[in-house]
Here is the input.
Amino acid sequence: MFDIAVIGAGPAGASAALFTAKAGKKTLVLDSDQSVTKRAWIENHYGASEISGPDLVDIGKKQAAKFGAELVQNKAVNIVKNGDGFKIETEEGRTFEAKYVIVATGMSVELAEKIGLKTKDGTEPRIKTVLEVDGSGKTNIAGIWAAGTVAGVSMHTIITAGDGAKVAINLISEINGERYVDHDIMKKA
Here is the structure.
């Protein structure tokens, strides 16, 4: 069983997975490879003078994998409560189990609505529906969190990536029972 399953590997999902994996949580990332970021040209992402969306998504996935996240390209089509966690079912018939789930499906609320997550009207252009989440990223179903555009934040990559990190830090903190901080320091040569 995974500690955390992240649904989606765009900026929010990959950022969340990077933090959860780096914190030592057994992390699964299920990605349908449909991120709208893959069609973007980005010149307003802090730390990158300019970058293509496909490159940003690829780098994010590699960063998460570097710390041990398991990436599976497969579309999640259902999430059901299973004991003290969840069973995630994929389009290809595979199943995965995780104690917690972070939904980071970008503009898509199809899966979220299917499993009973509460929604509300979106405020971004072209984003009609988003999930209701609290300030930490929790949804109405205990154990399921949400990050990024699907959670109602601006769809700019820097903002969704930051939201993924924020939600991951909040979830890690809850799991650990104390506030989690991830700060590396430069190593002296």
In short: The two ends are 40 Å apart (CA to CA). The first strand starts at residue 2 and ends at 7.
